[in-house]
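Protocol step 4 of 6.
Sequence for TonB C-terminal domain-containing protein (Alloacidobacterium dinghuense) entered exactly as in the expression construct, tag removed. Do not edit the line below.
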Amino acid sequence: MKAQRKIVWLLPLLLGVNIQVSAAAPTPDKVPLCDLQRTAKQGEQRSVQVGGIYITGFEGSVLTDAACPDQSTWVELDLKSTANKEQLRSMLDTAGKADVVFEGEFYGPGMPSPNLPEGVRKSYQPGWGHLGAFKTKLVVQAIQSVKPVPADHPGSADLSGQLPILQEAALPVYPPIGRAARITGKVVVEFTVSNGKVTATEVKSGPRLLAGGTVANLQTWQFASDVNGKFTVTYTYVMSDEETDSPTNPTVEMLPSLDVKITAHPVKPIPMYSAQGVPATDTSLHEAGHVQAAVQP
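Step 5 output, structure tokens:
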């Protein structure tokens, strides 16, 4: 019987067959979250080990670092190991956040659809997570460590002052009158949130023909019911270089700061003729937010 076992083990050697023993994949180097955010490239994916403050909310989870608190990354869990999973769950249930070290795949800004016009693809970076608000994403495959966030942690005060996660909102649009007049610019609005709902708005600056649509969209925003306070947001309205024969849906980007960028294609003007066969009265933009009729000679 022992002789038979020896023959079985010797056969692969006699036949020239290589026996390969699979080795565990090496643990990726630990990289600061701020460095990952700063160097992230569009379409990039890399294996990383990264630490930070993990925070969960109604609409998702983020990882942040006290050194760059305004550059959070969206987090999705796809765990290959259950180590530290229950410990993290327990800590989140009690505190809502934890000091962690994650291992997984880090993604830079997404690639725009090839079906979009070239002019849009050059400037458009699809976001990750809720409403596409995050530039980067981390897919967690292993939880290396979990600790409570100390009260004297340098990022504790900053975390409490972060903008809340937006839970619901209507899709922003380019105000039709402003779009027809090809008005661009930024509308800055201060808004008040009470029990998660926008209760007051004040336009600080921006073209008048764009402000009304901005406020109307902002009033549809909803946050968690415990969110209260005043915040400031900027809506940026941009016209692309490519004209279209008929109106198309604008491209909407929402940044982690809750700022909104709306890019629309201008519609080609349709020449109008009077009964005498001459061009009818035209309109031209006069000052910010005003349309003035051009007088025919």
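Step 6, annotate. The CA atoms of residues 112 and 139 lie 20 Å apart.
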